[in-house]
Write a structure and sequence with these properties.
The structure is a homodimer. The first copy, chain A, contains 12 helices and 12 strands. The first copy, chain A, is of the alpha/beta class. Chain A starts with a helix and ends in a 12-residue tail after the last strand. At the A-B interface, helix 10 and helix 11 of A face helix 10 and helix 11 of B.
């Protein structure tokens, strides 16, 4: 202690502020950390929390949940159509990112993407009518996560959209994601111009059946080895998917050429996926969803199995707490905008 | 020094051995490093070497050679046929790896590969006749490096073989390499069975024209950016080319599909290159050759521009010393053999 006090002191304090106040009154610099013990002074809550520390039932439940997570073997199985393969998907339903949110509270990009999805589905013939329809309560909005699904950004999945089907034979569950549109003006960022809708239709009519034929020729793809190799090649498999997309292409392209799909379609599809380093993103998301859903629903487990945001709120779900969401307002991020915005 | 001598001494000596001998006689452990100053005690040579240290003409020449090396921009241009595109390639000539060597002194794998090349060219109809032909002096054997070319392992290039053409517009030179056959039984390891020769014929008749059509549709590929990206993805672009091969496939495949080449050929070619993580190796070798040849021939430069071995000797060439080789016997390496060898 002696050498410590020989130097000028700069003090960090945590907890009760009167310690720091006393030091500040003596003229020393002091920083009070913005942290208090959990439970906010509520004795009952604090005792309940304390009882959970090293609680054998919770520890055992968490071990079981983590085992299921680690044992998962996500496999890219096929490409389906949302209304046909997603559990509990209705014909007038649109899925979105994050925890539940109604139209009135949605952020702009999510609304833009929903307007795009309504136009794409042909439920309205103008953005104005699509907005009126969305606001009128005739369309059900539900989180992707209520349907074993995930999607990047706005995360919009409407009934006609193609979805990746990722199976996890180790637990017997499946997970789903929409297909990546590329960068620039795309639905997931809220764009809904003719260019965006034309691409979505092409994805439904050409990309999806061609990929399905390719995967049928190839057989299922084990995703963990592919993702592990991509991680060693510099991807983090979220915002950088250059290696994973390349490795996927290398597997998929010979199969596409043997699939019997029309040659012109195959050429278009290969050019599309070769031109989009993010193509693998939605597959890695579905793989993670399949792994985490396997860990969900273990009674007593405190493992967080969902972390997701809808642009307004951030929410989590906990393995042992069923379908319940725990949400908090999402902070406004310092965004990087496309030129002109 | 004092704390040093307080501990038990373990001495390394370099140079005159009597220093070490004296220590050893006192009973201390001593290791005499196997190094002596250059020139082996020859005063004239030592003085000549000393004059070269920081010699302004040599320094300037080396700066110029390194500039040319760094300024090189190797581009994958097309696939040609050795007899048509290699400088000074004769109709009865076979190129090999490393410094010059005649048939009598060649190692087994190089002889095996040359027998394979003779059978592939149709100059003989049995391995025995091919060996007799090779030993009879009717076929000229020259290093790839005498023809701006490189090839992995035995490095055999015969007149009918397809070669990558890599141009370096910055210096106006070109370099060449044969095409990678994959792993297993292949000519570059000395194999010459029917399987090997059939593959070589397919490479000449199908792979080469299809790649040429693809590159024509695509245009030249700048190799430095592609190799730089591959280096960041874990390749060293010699024994690991997984990323570079994938990146090449991603560029090449859409072009192949648009090239007008027969669809069946395109499918075969894509399957072949997608199944061979080493496919890019020969391209990176030709790129390096193009860069180093640009640095060769600078009067006064001591930059080593070639390091190559033929299985018997290792040799170098120096920028300012023209076509001369400096060779030394190649040590026998501890090899990793295929099962059964």
């Amino acid at each position: 202690m002696k050498p410590l006090f020989a130097k000028p002191l700069s003090v960090l304090t945590v907890g009760v502020s009167s310690f720091g106040d006393a030091i500040a009154q003596c003229g020393a610099p002091v920083t009070q950390l913005d942290w208090v013990p959990p439970a906010g002074g509520d004795r009952q809550v604090a005792e309940a929390l304390a009882r959970l520390l090293n609680e054998p039932m919770v520890e055992a439940a968490n071990a079981k949940a983590v085992d299921r997570y680690l044992a998962a073997q996500p496999r890219l199985s096929t490409v389906g159509i949302a209304r046909e393969v997603l559990p509990r998907m209705d014909r007038r339903m649109i899925l979105h990112a994050g925890p539940p949110i109604d139209w009135a509270r949605m952020c702009g990009p999510m609304r833009g993407a929903i307007v795009g999805a309504i136009l794409y589905e042909g439920w309205a013939d103008s953005p104005q009518r699509a907005q009126a329809l969305a606001a009128g309560g005739e369309i059900a909005f539900e989180p992707c996560h209520h349907h074993a699904a995930v999607g990047p950004m706005a995360g919009i999945i409407s009934p006609s959209m193609p979805v990746w089907v990722v199976t996890n034979p180790a637990h017997g569950n499946s997970a789903y994601s929409n297909l990546n549109e590329g960068l620039g003006k795309v639905l997931r960022f809220g764009a809904n111009s003719a260019e965006v809708l034309t691409r979505l239709k092409w994805m439904e009519k050409t990309l999806a059946p061609t990929l399905r034929a390719g995967l049928e020729a190839l057989g299922e793809i084990d995703l963990k080895p592919l993702m592990a190799q991509a991680l060693h090649m510099g991807d983090e498999v979220h915002n950088r998917n250059a290696a994973a997309s390349s490795l996927l292409i290398k597997k998929l392209v010979p199969a596409l050429l043997k699939s019997g799909a029309p040659a012109g379609d195959v050429a278009q599809v290969i050019e599309f996926i070769a031109g989009n380093d993010h193509f693998f993103l939605n597959i890695s998301m579905a793989a993670c969803k399949a792994m985490l859903d396997a860990a969900h629903g273990v009674a007593g487990s405190s493992l967080v199995t969902v972390m997701a945001r809808n642009g307004v709120e951030f929410g989590i779900r906990v393995s042992g707490l069923g379908d319940r969401w725990f949400t908090t307002p999402a902070p406004v991020v310092e965004g990087l905008y496309f030129p002109g915005y």
